[in-house]
Amino acid sequence: MSASTLTTYLEAIRQGIWEEMEADERVFILGEDIGIYGGAFKVTEGMLERFGEARVIDTPISESAIVGAAIGAALMGMRPIAEMQFIDFISCAFDQITNLAAKNRYRWGAGVPIVIRGPSGGGVHGGPFHSQNPEMYFVHTPGLKVVAPATARDAKGLIKAAIRDEDPVLYLEHKYLYRRIKEEIPKQDYVVPIGRAEVRREGRDLTILTYGAMLYPSLEAAETLQQERGGETEVIDLRTLLPLDTEAILASARKTGKVMVVHEDTRTGGIAGEIAAIINEEVFDYLDGPVLRVTAPDTPVPYSPPLEEFFLPNKEKILKVARQLLAY
Amino acid sequence: MKNSRNTARGKAATAGSPAVIAAPRPFLPGPETPMRNPGLARERLLELHRFLRLNRMIEEKLSALYRQGKITGGLYSSLGQEAISVGSAYALGPDDLLAPMIRNIGSVLVRGVRPRDLFLQYLARRDGPTRGRDGTLHFGNVERLGLFSPISHLGTLIPVMAGAALGARLRGERRVALTYIGDGGASTGDFHEGLNLAAVQRLALVLVVENNGYAYSTPTERQFAVESLAERGPAYGVVAESIDGTDVLAVYEATRRAVERGRRGEGPTLLECRALRMRGHAEHDDMRYVPKDLLEAWRKRDPIDRFEGFLVRQKHATEDELERVARVLGPDLDAAAAEALEAPYPPGEESLHGVYVEPGYEKPWWPSP
Asked: How far is A73 from chain B (nearest CA, A)?
């Protein structure tokens, strides 16, 4: 296969937005440095030239106003995509997201079809304020949807699904994957449905549930287990964190009886705890051991490379917990 | 300056040291200028009067229901401020967009909301605008009434209504968005972010800053250091003026100019309307923190008394004709409230629905056609 047919994760997001803007004139984008500069990571490169400054809006550094204005425009029938230059800054828009966007439909029936997207995650030495994984602030908020693609194919399919969704969607793109992940993706229009997990590797002995950049060390760990002991590890990419694909999670738990959750987010209040609770409630009788977690520790994301390396989950940490679980 | 750190600490630790914050700045009414008809026909003047009276009477009725324990949530009065809600909303065109704040019941009455629906909403009944999911003026319907629901978090509606104006512009519609903020809400970050975004995008936003002297109990000198919030306008490149909020015609006329400016694509306008809040922050609050002489000074500037005096002096109506408005509205409101009191509450399990789009929750369900 020639390199030219491979699409990066970043390019897949760009294509998804571009195609939706071509197809639907209600779609427009707003954020900091997304127009003239094409975005800090160049996700929106070329869009100003193609779609004009009415639909590609460089805003002041005002995350709350960016999301607020997106909400107002959505209530007028538009389909805004608001970019957070780094997802860390989404905290500045917390009120608009959790109180306005999330509760609107429930309170008075007015849906808010907005997408808020931005680069999340560590591994690039961004330090405490350019590396965060803020998903759980929002997973705790009924009315929102939260997606976190791991592959280029999903990056495109999920951004399209998010733009077409009738409710507010947080689209967390992992900056570590932007240019490291390349794959062939379908030429024709497609969406990846929100709320569906994907089995990335089938197995009978152990289930690893994960998402985002942690998919890759999880798959590597599964491969190592296979080579070492012929163990068959199932790896499931959650893809959507809210709403969770409970059916897929429980089906795999029933099958393997041993479940671990791997996430880059910190431990306390991470999605692993929620998943463990669901598994306990629904399929306790099928379990051969406890639901275990591999997560970042409960600290901010440190800057210095050895500190960050220590902080982030990796293949070795996953293997250690997997062996512990397989021993049951 | 041998050791400035110690000096600073010493100051902070000295109890009873002279306050470094602003001195009291009593919220007195400015000089009373005669009301002036900006060219409204008699019928429209009388319609304005009817809305003012309806605003006051419906709040009196709600207050009575509150005291009877029928309204379980908070109730926030606009007594003394009715001319701001009514005069500003009256200046909007039928396709324009409005987001009220908690005290702007007059603005939604102008927008066409029926008293019956207001009672159902405040009484948390199944057939109210939010099916009992929220209270007060937290309801809306953009498509049919151009009405956006506020939330309790102050300032948030400023960016949202800037976005509504942006959305209208993207659709090629020349619609103006109006929203309100109080003297207290003007201290929020969203006030700054929203107004600034509206200014750089030249959005058709009218921001009515309702300065009623107190943010709950906090007087304006502890809220901002300028005399008038209209002074902020030029700092944002926004046209701004300060208006006597007890003069319904002045509020109407200033808003009309702002709406026209927005419709011409000349950007946002900030209108500071000043009128003392004549009741507590909410019904439970006896507002003992407001000096009696201040209340007395503003009582003489009651917006409805002023407008009625104007109408009689200018021979648009007789006193008897004006009194008849209340005599007609009273029984109607009593009937609407009685009907709402008979209406059922929503069933508890209904609370599980409509968090996300699902049948019956695709769009606002109120008002029924």
From this structure: 4
∠B200-B204-B206 over CA atoms, to 5°? 105
Of B164, B189, B361, the CB nearest to A75: B164
Check pLDDT > 90 for residue B105. Answer: yes
Is B277 labeled as catalytic in the residue annotation? yes
Which value does ipTM take for this structure?
0.96
Smallest Cβ–Cβ distance between A108 and the set B129, B171, B196 belongs to B129
* Angle A288-A289-A290 from CA coordinates, rounded to 5°: 145
What's the pLDDT tens digit per position in B67-84?
999 998 999 999 999 999
Nearest one of A60, A108, A297 to B136, comparing CA atoms: A108
CB contact under 8 A, B197 and A103: no
A19 and A159 Cβ atoms separated by less than 8 Å = no
Q: Which of A69, A72, A91 lies closest to A82, judged by CA?
A: A69
Of B133, B159, B364, Cβ closest to residue A69: B159
Question: Which residues are CB-neighbours of A303 under 8 A, at least 6 positions away?
Answer: A125, A126, A127, A128
- Residue A241 reports pLDDT greater than 50: yes
In A, which residues are within 8 Å of B159 by CB distance?
A: 62, 64-69, 71-72, 96
A 87-116 residues with CB < 8 A to B: 95-96, 99-100, 103-111
Per-residue pLDDT tens over the stretch B143-170: 999 999 999 999 999 999 999 999 999 9
Separation between Cα atoms, residue A160 and residue A22, nearest integer Å:
12
Cβ contact A32:A61 at 8 Å: yes
Q: Which residue of B has its CA nearest to A96?
A: B156
Name the B residues in 162-181 with CB < 8 Å from any A CB. Answer: 162-171, 177
For B183-204, what is the mean pLDDT? Answer: 98
How many angstroms away from the CA of B158 is the closest CA of chain A? Answer: 8
User: Which chain B residues are Cβ-neighbours of A108 within 8 angstroms?
Assistant: 129-130, 133-134, 138-141, 149, 364, 366
Cβ neighbors of A308 (< 8 A, separation 6 or more) are A122, A123, A125, A131, A301, A302
Does B128 have pLDDT greater than 60? Answer: yes
Non-local (6+) Cβ contacts of A228 within 8 A are: none
Q: How many CB atoms neighbour CB B14 within 10 A?
A: 9
Tokens of B9: 């600490």
Are the CB atoms for A301 and A122 separated by under 8 Å?
Answer: yes
At residue B4, does pLDDT exceed 50?
Answer: no
3 state DSSP class of A27: strand
Q: Return the SS3 of B352.
A: helix
Does residue B184 sit at the A interface (CB-CB below 8 Å)? no
The per-residue pLDDT for range B316-369, each reduced to its tens digit, is 999 999 999 999 999 999 999 999 999 999 999 999 999 999 999 999 999 987
Interface contact A106-B129, CB threshold 8 A: no
pLDDT digits (tens, 9 = 90+) for A105-146: 999 999 999 999 999 999 999 999 999 999 999 999 999 999
What predicted TM-score, i.e. pTM, was given to this entire model? 0.96
For residues A174-182, average pLDDT = 98
Confirm if B55 and B105 have CB atoms less than 8 A apart.
Answer: yes
Res B356: pLDDT: 98
Contact criterion met (CB below 8 Å) for B279 and B290? no
B361 touches chain A (CB under 8 A): yes
Q: Cα A202 vs. chain centroid, distance in angstroms? A: 22
Q: Residue B206 in contact with residue B233, Cβ under 8 Å?
A: no
